[in-house]
Amino acid sequence: MSLARMLALVVSGLAIAATPLSAPAQTMKPEVKIGVLTDMSSIYSDLVGAGSVLAAQMAIDDFIAAEKPGFKISLVSADHTSRADVAASIARKWIDEQGVDVLTDVAGASVTLAVSNIGAEKNKLVLATATGQNSLSSEDCKPTTLHWSYNTRAVAATTARAVTGDGAKTWFFVTADYAGGRSLEEDATKGVLAAGGKVLGSVKHPFNNSDFSSQILMAQSSGATAIGFANSGPDTINSVKQANEYGLNGKVALTPLLPMITDIDAMGLDMAKGMYVTESFYWDLNDQSRAWSKRFFDQRKKMPTMVQAGLYSAVMHYLKAVKAAKTADTGPVLAKMKELTISDAVTKPSHLRADNIVLRDMYLFKVKAPSESKYAWDDYTLLKMVPGEEAFAPLSESKCPLVKH
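Above: the chain's sequence. Below: its structure in C-alpha cell form.
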C-alpha cells in the first residue's frame, strides 16, 4: 500500500472518530394512557364527574379524527369522592401499576395538592382543570402540574369588582371552611377594596353543609348590601336558596363567587337573575362553543361547565404535544405544551405562563331574567371580556420557584 493511500485511510478514520454520536432517538409508546381522576359521587359530581370523562373522550376522539396519530390512546377514570387520601392512592396505583401517563381533573383544592405532589415525585404530568387554588401557580407550584381552567383570583376578584362598582359597597362573606373557600373570600375582598367597597365581616360553614340559617342571619344582621358566597357546587346552591327563603333576594346583592352554569340552572333564573358571574367558558359564547357544547349536550343532557370544557382543552393540547414531541416522556411533552399555542374548540389562543398557569381571557356575565331567556340554558348576558393579564395576578407576584424574578 502506498504512503499516500495509508495517510488517506488514517485521515478518514480520524474524521469518523471525531463525528459526534447523535442523541438516541426518542421512542413513541404504542399506547398513551390518560387518567381522569374526578368526583363521581360527592359534592362536585355535577360540575365534573361523568361530564369530565365525556369531555376527555371527546378530546381523544377529535384528536384522532384530526391528527390520525400513529399511537393508541386509552382512557381510565375513577372517583376520588373528594378525599385527598383516596385520590393519592388511586394516582399512585395508576402510575406504578397501570402505566398512566397523565392525570387530569383532580377537582378540589386538597385533592389537587395531594395529586400534584405525587405527579412531581413520579415525574408525571397533572393537568389541574377543576380547581381554583391560587397556590398551584405560586408557592405550591410544581414543574409537572399545569393549572388550566381558572383560579379564584380570576373569578372572585372580577365578580366582586363588578358588584361593588354597581353600587353594593358593603360586603359580608359566607365562606366554606376549607382552602378553596378561604381563597375565594380573600380574592373577592381584594376586588371589593379595589372598587372602593368595604368588608363588614364573614362567617365560616362546614364543607357540604345543609343548613345555612345561622350564617344567613349573621349576614343579614350585618347590614351589608352584598353577600358573597365563597363556596361552590351544592353549598352555593343551598346557601343562595336559603338566603332567598329569608327574603334577601332583591334587597341585597346575593353574589356566588364560583357559580357554574349547572348551579345557575339548579337555582333557576327567577332566583339567580341579576347575579354577576365570571367564567372562562360559556356554551353560548360563539358558533364554535355552541357546536362543541351541542355535541356534549347530546350525550350528557346538560351543558358543559367551564371546568369540563377546560378538561377537553387540556387533553387536546396534551395529545398535540405528544405527537409533536414524538414521545410520551414528560420532559419533551411538557416542553412542547409550553411551546405550542393553546387553541381549540373551547379556548381562544392562549399559552402556558412561566408559573404553569394558562393565561386565558375570562368573561364577566350577568344572569338573565326569565323573560330575557329565549331557550333552555340561555342564562347569561355577556358584559365584557377580561384579558388574562388583568384577570390573573401578574407574574411578578408569583412565588413559584419556576419563575425567575
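Confidence is low (pLDDT under 50) at residues 1-25.
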